[in-house]
Design brief:
Layout (H helix, E strand, L loop, with lengths): L1 H9 L1 H6 L9 H4 L7 E5 L14 E6 L2 H10 L4 E4 L12 E6 L9 H14 E13 L2 H4 L3 E2 L6 E4 L3 E4 L5 H8 L3 E10 L2 E9 L1
Parallel strand pairs: 1-2, 1-4, 2-3, 4-5
Antiparallel strand pairs: 5-10, 6-7, 7-8, 9-10
């Protein structure tokens, strides 16, 4: 995770400039947030999805100080913090909604993915909900990866950036293990740009 953090700090400006598209296919997830709710964008990157959450009490968190710098430049009126997703600086039962877009597949090891989810559950209100996505990597991209584990699910891609390759249904398994109640899961996007998504509650 230290290597991943250093990598994103090094490429923060160029990475942020390449992530201007809003991913309209995800808009249905953000529409679940109501006006005035406390909402956390977990792994917010350059803060672009804050545009979908203008009516909420938005907070964006990312472990890359470089990405947070870029987010603050783009959206100076919004709140952004540098923090690990494994140890968040919020009290218990603080947020109504938590969004985490394309982050959990970059958390190395089952142990840390569960820790991330349990930390999200800790700061979520009793009636709160979480909305996560993970990359559904296409076959062509997989062939470019450096395989790191016998199962072929832990890989490096581009600048030795870590990814975990989720299978369909696997997100719901780890959410349940972390103590969530799964409401819905599915796949969104085009053939070569697909993502798994999951909606769960406390």
């Amino acid at each position: 995770m230290n290597d991943l953090q250093e990598d994103y700090n090094l490429v923060a400006t160029s990475f942020a400039s390449s992530r201007d598209r809003m991913w309209p296919e995800l808009e249905f997830l953000f529409k679940q947030a109501k006006k005035g709710e406390s909402v956390l964008d977990l792994g917010c990157g350059n803060g672009r999805f804050s545009e979908y959450l203008k009516e909420t009490k938005y907070v964006g968190v990312d472990f890359s100080s470089g990405m947070i710098r870029e987010a603050k430049k783009r959206f100076p009126g919004k709140q952004f913090l540098t923090s690990s997703v494994l140890d968040l600086p919020f009290k218990e039962s603080f947020f109504d909604k938590i969004y985490s877009i394309a982050v959990i597949h970059q958390i190395p090891s089952h142990k840390y993915r569960i820790k991330m989810l349990k930390e999200a559950k800790r700061i979520l209100k009793k009636s709160g909900r979480v909305f996560f996505t993970a990359w559904k990597m296409d076959k062509e991209t997989k062939e470019k990866c450096q395989i790191l584990s016998p199962q072929g699910k832990d890989v490096f891609l581009k600048r030795k950036r870590y990814y975990y390759l989720f299978d369909e249904g696997e997100l719901s398994d780890i959410f349940r293990e972390a103590g969530f109640f799964v409401e819905k899961e599915g796949v969104i996007g085009e053939e070569k740009k697909c993502n798994f998504y999951i909606i769960a509650n406390k």
